[in-house]
């Protein structure tokens, strides 16, 4: 009663992840810098929180939040696997695709 498992569909084939592109590396660097600036913002807010007025505390908190949010977005963009969508000449000949 041992049955063979059904074959896996094509979307379960192994995927190759290309290396990171230049802009992804730049975004990752800026994201890390933004996270560091968010931590600096938290530390500055904690140290000087009692000595400054409410509007300045609000500005420090907003700056810290924006730095953190920018870091999250850029870190996501920098770590995404972007496939290579260029069409090779061999693929064009194989599928008989005319040049645009």
Rg, rounded, reads: 24 Å
What is the 3D form? elongated
As a percent range, the share of strand residues is: under 5%
Q: Can you count the beta strands?
A: 0
The stretches of 5 or more residues where confidence is low (pLDDT under 50) are: none
Structure in words:
The protein is mostly helical and 100 residues long. The chain has a domain at 22-80. It is 60% helix and 0% strand. Helix 1 packs antiparallel against helix 2. The longest helix has 27 residues, at 22-48. The chain is elongated. The mean pLDDT is 81.
Search tags:
single chain; 100 residues; 3 helices; 0% strand
Q: What's this, in brief?
A:
The chain has 100 residues and is an all-alpha fold.
Write the layout of secondary structure elements.
Blueprint: H1 22-48, H2 54-79, H3 89-95
């Amino acid at each position: 009663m041992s049955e063979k498992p059904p074959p896996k569909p094509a979307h379960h084939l192994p995927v190759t992840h290309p290396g990171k592109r230049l802009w992804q590396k730049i975004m990752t660097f800026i994201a890390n810098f933004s996270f560091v600036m968010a931590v600096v913002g938290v530390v500055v807010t904690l140290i000087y929180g009692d000595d400054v007025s409410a509007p300045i505390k609000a500005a420090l908190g907003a700056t810290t939040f924006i730095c953190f949010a920018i870091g999250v977005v850029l870190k996501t963009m920098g770590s995404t696997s972007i496939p290579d969508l260029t069409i090779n000449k061999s693929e064009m000949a194989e599928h008989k695709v005319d040049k645009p």
